[in-house]
Amino acid sequence: MIGSGWLLAPYTAAKAAGPAAFLSWTIASVATLLVSLAFIDLAFRHPMSGGNVRWPQLASGPLVGTVVGWAVFLQAVYAAPSESSAVVQYASGWLPWVMSGESLSWAGRLLAVGLLAVFCTLNLFGLRLLAAVNNVVAAVKVVIPALTVILLLASGFDSSNVDRGGGVAPFGVSAALTAVVGGGLVYSFTGINAAAVMSGEAKNPRRTVPRATLIVLVGSVLLYLGLQAVMIFSTPAGLLGSGWHGINLKSPLAAIATLLGLGWFSTVLLADAVFSPSGSLLIGIGVKGRYTYGAAQNGLLPAALTRVDRRFGIPRRALLLNVSIGSVIVLAFGNWKTIASSLSFYYGLSYAAVSVAVTVLGASTPVEKGWLRRWTTPVGFASFVISGLILYWSAWEKIRIAVPLLLIGFGIYLVRSRARAGSWSRIQAAGGWLVGFLVMLVALSGLGSFGGTGLLAAPYDSVVVGVLSGGIWWLAHRSGLRHQHRLQQSTVDLPDNETDNARSTA
Predict the structure, then answer these.
(1) What membrane topology does the UniProt entry give (predicted)?
(2) For the chain: N or C, fewer Cβ within 10 A?
(3) How many CB atoms lie within 10 A of CB 425?
(4) How far apart, in Å, are the Cα atoms of 166 and each of 11, 20, 152, 235?
């Protein structure tokens, strides 16, 4: 949960929205809470590993399952580049040549690629090393950020920064909304589903998943709000001469510590800024390699990627594919903010699919067997609507790149469905609401005020997106219920070979 986001997201949010960044964190926190409740309820009803892909497919059919699976694969290849870019960016405190403006220089990008190669190599030798490193890194990740909030606020709290920077919302509310995704805030919460996604391997998921998820969420929200307060109230007044857009800090928190006379703590931050994301990078490469391995098992990727090393039990080919594509991403973008915001879009899409899954699967089991009970439908509905808004607020610049990449997932689905033609095709056609959802996002983003033509002005564009998202949720929920009914009928009425297909898809 606490990776490179704590080092850079408060800075990018302050730079984009000024003090209104607190609104950005509030929206991101509420959205994360809602989707966390959905994950908890799904893990409570149907504990399984890899549920972030399997629950949407079980609820909405193979179309949604395939596209969400592709989005999860994109998460896998974007995750490691975001961490390696953060490591190198903070290392610029010692190695200034790794930065060129606000992006990595070519030398910095090559160094980030080198880190990917080194940590991929370490991952090829099994899980024992990962477990040992994670125990140490987890403790450091909590202690150092907490000390950062305490020491920097105590050394340089200045409430007049709000006026110097142009007021509470110097760039308007829309800037705060865009920062939710564009500033990497959604990215900073992306570890929240870990307990639920691993629920199939937990001894008592009905007890441990809710507790682990909610404790981590509350602690992370408090930490991120504290770090945002540091950026707003402890930034030296001399840096705000050109407003919040004008601040330019390569290693933000370490630079502020130095300017406040805490040179020794600046050194600690620079060291931890390299250490903590490195630990996340080491763990993340291994975990995301399993994402790609799972996608290959589901038929999204070539079967060759399902091969596992006999000695160490590692899907080496899946790891190597992720790192290879990740290296291209680092070389192409070379900027933490760009990589993190792109990654956030794919998380937001998978969260929307999970929000539908919790209401559909909740309707198929008695109310008393769920963790949310009668709140299942309201939570799923609210989570879907706010997911739609967050995806829209990510702005046209991100949507026009992210959605075409998802078309690859649709292409894979069409190839797979063609191989399963026949009476089973009606079940395969379920989930068309996802097509409408993405078309709506692209069309309104192009016409709206978040990087579009502005034909649909704020705040009316957000209202329209919210209303249409609610309508799409209703269609998705109804489609999911019909899919459940057809799936049950298919196991009775279809020939044996097609019945096997139906069961395997579920």
Answers:
(1) Multi-pass membrane protein
(2) C
(3) 11
(4) 17, 11, 22, 14
The count of domains in the chain is 1
* Residues in Cβ contact with 209 at an 8 Å cutoff, skipping those fewer than 6 apart: 39, 40, 43, 44, 47, 195, 196, 199, 202
Round to whole Å and give the CA distance between 449 and 171. Answer: 13
Cα–Cα distance, 357 to 227 (Å, whole number): 34
CA torsion, points 302, 291, 480, 355, in degrees to nearest 10? -150
Q: Which two tokens stand for residue 189?
A: 């919460």
Tokens of 336: 């933490």
Q: Which amino acid is at 258?
A: T
Q: Quick one: which H or E segment has residue 141?
A: helix 127-156
Per the document, the length of the chain is 506
Instruction: Compute the distance between CA of residue 250 and CA of residue 248 in angstroms, rounded to an integer.
Output: 7
Q: Which residues contact 491 (CB under 8 A, 6 or more apart)?
A: 499, 502, 503
Q: Is 234 helix (H, G, I), strand (E, B) or coil?
A: coil
Query: Residue 220 has which token pair?
Result: 């992370």
Range of the domain at 255: 5-505
Cβ(465)–Cβ(389) below 8 Å: yes
Cis amide bond preceding 210, omega within 30: no
The 10 Å Cβ neighbour count of residue 168 is 15
Strand partners, 198: 49
Rg from Cα positions in the chain:
23
Q: What is the mean pLDDT of each run of 10 residues along the chain (506 residues)?
A: 81 91 93 92 82 82 84 82 83 83 87 87 67 70 89 90 86 86 82 78 82 91 95 89 83 89 89 75 73 72 76 76 88 77 79 91 75 89 92 84 80 67 51 88 89 85 92 92 78 46 45
Q: Which of 325, 414, 363, 354 is nearest to 193 (CA)?
A: 354
Alpha-carbon dihedral angle through residues 363, 366, 368, 369, given to the nearest 10 degrees = -90
Amino acid found at 352: A
